[in-house]
Prior knowledge:
- This protein is α+β, with helices and mostly antiparallel strands.
- The protein is 23% helix and 39% strand.
- The chain has three domains: 5-32 and 49-110, PmbA/TldD fold (2-Layer Sandwich), CATH 3.30.2290.10; 115-164 and 177-231, Double Stranded RNA Binding Domain, CATH 3.30.160; 241-481, no CATH class.
- It has helices at residues 5-18, 74-94, 126-141, 211-214, 217-234, 249-261, 266-270, 338-343, 377-382, 433-438, and strands at 23-39, 42-60, 63-69, 108-113, 148-167, 172-189, 196-206, 236-237, 241-247, 298-300, 323-327, 330-331, 352-353, 362-363, 367-370, 386-390, 393-398, 404-409, 412-416, 419-425, 428-432, 440-443, 450-458, 463-471, 474-481.
- A hairpin with a 4-residue loop joins strand 23 and strand 24.
- The longest helix is centred in the first third of the chain and has 21 residues, at 74-94.
- It is globular, with a radius of gyration of 24 Å.
Amino acid sequence: MTAEPIDLVEKAIEKGEKLGAQYIEARLVDLKSNTSILKSGVPELGAIFRSKGIGIRVLKDGGVGFASFNEMTKEEMNIAVTFATKMAEAGGNRRSKKIAFSEEEIHKTTYQAIGHSGKRPLEISPEEKINRLINLDKIAAEVETDAIIPFRFFQMLDQTEKKLIITNEGARIESETDLLQLFGLIVAVNPTTGSKEQLMIQKGKAGGYESLDFWKIEEFIEKEVTTLGKIVTEAKEAPKGTIDYVVGPNVIGIMCHENQGHPSEGDRILGREGAQAGESYLKQDMIGEKIGSDKVTIIDDPTLVGSYGYYLYDDEGIKAGPRHLLKDGIFQDMLHNRESAAFMQTKSTAAARAIGYNREPIPRMANTYLAPGDFELGELIEDVKLGVLMHNFTEWNIDDRRYQSKYVGLEAYLIENGEVKHMVRRPVVETTTPKLWGSVDAVAKKSLLEFDAATCGKGDPMQGAPVYHGGSFMRIRNVEVR
């Protein structure tokens, strides 16, 4: 016998309390997504994904249990709650250090982040979506360039997620969010030398189909493919030795995400991620320690309107706000859920995120960026005797403590005596995280702030979370390049 999903969420709370749960949350997630794919002008098989279910998480006797179900019956609900409770009991009995959740303010609210009327993702026909991709491909294929563009890949992902979170503490958070992402991969080849480069494009936004117009996506594709062609046909060798770098939003974003976002995750610092994604160069007792220069403030803020990692309340019902991972170079905030916060005797920073009803909430980034400064781009460049202006990157590497890292540029230019000269090929920033942030001496103003979208992987089983990362421009002094 089926039951209404909302009724099952409420009944799950009652069932958990009868079984002695100190804490129980029930999270109903109704997710609808579509994927449209175009490969070198030819439509590929897309995807239609529909998922609806309820996740149950229980804290009892110092242990945590999780279970989920997608058959909307009272029988399945009872099985899931009972299983999660027994799992918590068993785990608690075997733990020397008992799990607890931090004490937090309880909220009841409803919010939305949806597309404009008539522009919501699910209201746009598959034909219209694929035709938009065909037009983008046509622009990329017909760009006037001395390079060959042999491969072009475009993918549009859209989704609508409805979510209801209820806890036995009285929290009740209901939300509805539309997301749109455009992913592109374009390859350019020098017909004479055979050398090649690839451009990866990731745009994402909370909202509807109007996001494509917001990005001016056709103009963007034409500009980027034209530049890609010049890189493989005109770029010269990058300078070596000790030089300065001026890096753009795309590079800053990945640096903020990898060098400061991941190592600031509470569960990673506690060691939970060690066997899966690595550890952290940061430790609990380093709060208040100076990591970078006073020009470096790195913020992770889920509440940025229209952002790809947007939410107002996390998946434990905690109200979100800006987290200052570094403030004036000082390590200030971690990304906590209630479990890691309690272990460190602090408050949650509303970082608990779960991707789907059948995943547990774990500490995650949302929108991570370098706070703008006061400089014009020209001011960053004019004081550089020998250096590189790096607009974006083509590859990156980082160790599993997020300490040693390497970023390789794509669109980049020689700076000589304060002037931007010719293009250079694959310049490299290779440094440690403290040295990276400690070498920043100037950051560009807010009008130059930009973001890229990404899907951040973490967890076992894997959870791919939508995120933003970005910045304006920043200058890094005395980078050693071999």
